[in-house]
Every structure is written in C-alpha cells, then in structure tokens.
Write a structure and sequence with these properties.
There is one protein chain. The chain has about 90 residues and is mostly helical. The protein is about 70% helix and about 0% strand. It contains five helices and no strands. The protein has helices at about 5-15, 20-30, 35-45, 45-55, 60-85. It is elongated, with a radius of gyration of 15 Å. It starts with 6 loop residues before the first helix and ends in a 10-residue tail after the last helix.
Length: about 90
C-alpha cells in the first residue's frame, strides 16, 4: 500500500498518465522510503485521535498539516528519484 501511496500526487500533476504507469512511478519513487513513510503516517495517529476527541474541530489545523507534509514528502522523493537518475522528467509525460 505504501508503494502506491504517491499515485494521487502523480496523477494530479500529470492527468494524462495511465493508472498502470502511475503505479510503476509510485513504486520507483517510494523505493527506499517505505519505512520512513510508515513512520510519518504513524506519527499522525496522535493528531487523528485528538481530532476525533474534539469532534472534528481540530481538523481545521490537522488536515492541512497532514496533507502538506505528505505533499512535501512526495516532492522530496520525486526530486531524489530524478537526481539519482532512477526517473527522468520524460517519465512523467
């Protein structure tokens, strides 16, 4: 599941890419970062619990924080995959 976690970002940036290609790109992007992504997702668990305890009021702060952190992780991993020549910009077209 974590291997495919970046598909939404890939498809948002490049709507002309097929689902299968987005899956393959996501697998390449997350290679070597699966454990880090798991730790990142687990670190949000406390915020999610606090949001539930406040009946969703805290989501005004937590959801943008979680989404922005995930988006920045995607940008970092994509940039590293391109710099390390695992992917090229043409792969995203």
């Amino acid at each position: 599941t974590i291997s495919y976690s970046q598909m939404n970002y890939i498809l948002s940036e490049n709507p002309n890419i097929s689902i299968n290609k987005a899956m393959k790109l996501s697998m390449v992007i997350t290679k070597g970062y699966k454990k880090d992504l798991l730790y990142m997702y687990i670190s949000f668990l406390g915020w999610i619990i606090l949001t539930a305890l406040t009946l969703g009021l805290l989501s005004v702060y937590t959801l943008p924080y979680i989404k922005l952190t995930s988006a920045n992780a995607y940008l970092f991993m994509k940039g590293f995959a391109i710099k390390s020549n695992r992917l090229t910009l043409e792969d995203f077209q």
